[in-house]
Each structure stands twice: as structure tokens, then as C-alpha cells.
Amino acid sequence: MSSSKAQEIRVRIGPSPTGDPHVGTGYVSLFNYAFAKQQGGKFILRIEDTDQKRSSPESEQAILDSLKWLGINWDEGPDIGGPKGPYRQSERLELYREQVQKLVDSGHAYWCTCTPERLAEVRKRQLALKQPTGYDGHCREENHTAGVVRLRTPQDGQTVFTDALRGEIKIDNSEVDDQVLLKSDGFPTYHLANIVDDHFMGITHVIRGEEWISSTPKHILLYQFFGWDAPQFVHLPLLRNSDKSKVSKRKNPVSLEYFKEAGYLPEALLNFLGHMAFSFQDGREMYTLEEFVQEFKVERISLGGPVFDLKKLLWLNGRYLREKFSDTEFVSYIQKQLFSDNYLNQIIPLVKERVEKSEDFLEYADFFFKASVLTDPANYSLKSITEKRPLIKLYEALIEQIEALRPFDKDSLQATLRGFCEAEGLKTKELFMAIRWMVTGKKATPPLFETMAVLGRERCRTRMRQALGELKK
């Protein structure tokens, strides 16, 4: 993809701090970083925290730590700043409000006062008539001055844009609804903040996942209505499971924190993510981040559905382990990764009352170090729920709560699990024993809440999802 010599290349990623850092963030970051560095440009990190109910400082810090662990460093953003600050959208609200008012004044946006109940009825009716779902334009010709602000999309014609990998893409405007731009709480939606930020930050190339293709017409319309030049778009192929479904936490570990805690090397994970949509002309399997940057060309990105194959990642990680470390270095690595003073100091108070000789520690505390602790699925059953489907649904709801839990400590776990039992009418003793089996693979362990806190959210949720997978078979 060619670019003007006079124009500085500026790319960005915009993760939302609403959960754990996703492996997809690492994947998209790698390709943005490589393009920026090869072109002598800037790679910008922007925290898109407009979802205030779900955003948290802990999630933001986890994103920063995970990218640093991978070795992907940003030129502007949190911890560094930039021409206009650290780039957190929650700190740029006045800019968004100013810009959306310009759209209202020019007639390209309008205030809407439709209630959630009315919108639900509209959607219900559209589904019943097998019509496309979306806002029906009820407030288009009204003259409201409160509520939410919606984009006034054209009723006919097409919106056309060019993707660097796919060429010209045309989408009928009838498929683009009047998207909310500004919420009633004064915060922008992604679509508005994304465009305003990209313009004022001078973003020249938007490299993101292909799931955003269907939203691009909304973005193109906004650029046109504002009178701004649009950046060049590059939509990367989605990471997929072996069955071609989108990679998700329900089928595979997807948190960058999981891979860090599980003992994957950052070099191996980056190498693996690079393989997802790019290959070296000489066919090499292993390469450094610097070599990837030197070789990288946008036009050589493969659009074939990249399969997130954990077996391939394990193989690659094994090669890195064997080739990177001498025997002495390997000992130090294992000690740091598995038997650090910090980790052992958390475990010992929980197990030493049961240990009579050193060997007992290995037997009693092995689940603190194992990759998998799966047992007979019967251990995960509940007497009060005899049918499979309701049991699976119940565990899925519980795991969702555990994944969202912050802080992940003894008191929070106890409150969450006891509250879940009360809400679902479950006996605590029965559910807690099933959870114990899921996260430790044992019937007798140290106290459950303290044990889960030491294992950490990543191990607990991964093991619970593995156990749920066994129940689904």
C-alpha cells in the first residue's frame, strides 16, 4: 500500500477497558505496529472507555501491561501522552459534543426521544414481519432538543469505500440505520468518537478486524458530513476456531493474561499471531518482531480465514523454549514462571497444615501448577438440577460473573458465589463442591475462596470453561 512521502503515517488501536486484554488486541496491534515502524510513522494507543459502566482502571492497566509484555510499544498514548494528552475518550467529551452539534446544525443528525420500550416494540414488529431490524426514523422530522443524537443516513443509493485488501466495497444505504452518535448521558458511541478521534489525531490508515466492514459506511458518511478526508482502510481477517467460528472465550482461552500466566513466551505468541495473516517469502516459521517489521507489506496480508490453532502455538512455543535458553537459563525461567517467591508465599499458608514432609507438598498442591485438572464430569453435576441444558446455562451465567469480578480476591469471590447461590436457590455446599472440582480437580483442598484467589481469574475461568466443555459432550 503506497503512501505519500510528505505525510507522516499514523495508525492506532483503540481497545476498550471492559474486560481482560483480548488476543485479538495483540493480533491487530502487531499489524498496526509493523506498518507504522516500517513506514517511519507513529503507532498510537487510544483507550476507548466511553462505556463507563463496564470500564475499569484495572482493565486499562491490564491492556498496557499485556502489550508491554508482548514488546509492542506505542509512540503516543497512556504513560507517554501525545500532542493532546494520553488519549482516553472519557477525557475528550467536550470535543465530541462540539462536533455532534455541528452535525445537528447542518441537518446530518437529529435528536431522538424514543424510549427503550418503544424501540423494543419496533424491533419485535420488524422480527415478526421478517424485516431488517433497526431504527425506523420516528423522530427524523421532529424538532427535539434532548434525548440521544442519531445520524441521519441517506434513504437510497450506496456508500462506497475502498479496502486495501478487498478493493471497492459498496453497501446499500438502506442497510445502514440511523445510528446513535451521542447517548443521553452525554457520552459518545463508538462510531462518533472513533471518527472524531481519528481525524483530530491525524490517523492516516485504519487497520482493524473485518468485523468492522459492515460499520464502515456509517464512518464514511460521518467523514463526508464533517467534510473531512477519510483514512485508508485495511480490514484484517478474523481469528477463527478450527470450525471457522470466531475465536471467543467460550471455546478457547483468548486473554493475553492467560497466555502470559500459562508460560507462553511473548516472542512465540507474536510469531504465532504474525502467521495468522502473513508469511515470509522464504517460508521461515520463526522470526523476531524486528524481522517481521522489515518483511511486512500490507498487500501480502492473506485473507484466508486464519485458524487459531493452539497445537501450532504450543509447537512454536516449545521451539522457542529450547532454542532461547541454555540449561541454566531454563532453570531460572522455570523458577520465575512456576515457583516464584511471590506465588509460593501465597500457597504455603494454605497448605502447610496438611504437609508432614516435603513430598506431600507436590501431592497436595499440584493443582496450583497444572495446566488441566479435568475429572469425571459427574463431579460437576448438581442434585437440584437434573437436566443437562439448564445446568450448562447455570454454569455459563456463573462463569460470566467470575470473569467480570474485580478485584478477584477472597471476599469478592465469597460475596459473588454466595449471592449466586441465593439468587438461583442453590445449596452453597453442593455448588461450592462442584466448583472445587472444576478449579482444582480434587475433593479435598484448602478453603475454596482463598484457593481461587491464589489461582487467579485466568486459571479459574479457563478451568471452569474446560469443565463446562466436558459437560456439553
How would you characterize the overall build of this protein?
- With 473 residues, the chain is mainly alpha-helical.
- Helices cover 45% and strands 9% of the residues.
- It has 3 domains: 10-89 and 239-310, Rossmann fold (3-Layer(aba) Sandwich); 92-236, HUPs (Rossmann fold, 3-Layer(aba) Sandwich); 368-472, Orthogonal Bundle (Arc Repressor Mutant, subunit A).
- The protein has helices at residues 23-38, 57-70, 93-105, 116-128, 190-200, 216-226, 256-261, 266-275, 289-295, 310-324, 327-338, 341-351, 358-364, 388-403, 410-424, 428-440, 448-472; strands spanning 10-13, 42-45, 109-112, 148-151, 158-163, 167-172, 180-182, 205-209, 232-236.
- The strands form 4 sheets. A 3-stranded antiparallel sheet has the order 3-4-7. Strands 1-2 form a two-stranded parallel sheet.
- It is globular.
Task: Please summarize what this structure is.
It is built from 17 helices and nine strands. The chain has 473 residues and is mainly alpha-helical.
Gyration radius, to the nearest Å? 25 Å
Overall pLDDT confidence: 93
Oligomer: single chain
Give the overall shape.
globular
Strand content is: 5-15%
- Looking at the overall shape, the CATH architecture of the largest domain is 3-Layer(aba) Sandwich
CATH superfamily of the largest domain: HUPs
Q: In the CATH hierarchy, what is the class of the largest domain?
A: Alpha Beta
Biggest beta sheet summary: 3 strands, antiparallel
Alpha-beta content class: mainly alpha
Helicity level: 40-55%
Q: Which fold name is given in CATH as the topology of the largest domain?
A: Rossmann fold
In total, the number of strands is: 9
Q: List unreliable stretches of 5+ residues.
A: none
The strands making up the biggest β-sheet line up spatially as: 3-4-7
Order of secondary-structure elements: EHEHHEHEEEEHEHEHHHHHHHHHHH
State the domain count. Answer: 3
Number of helices in the DSSP assignment: 17
Distance between the termini: 47 Å
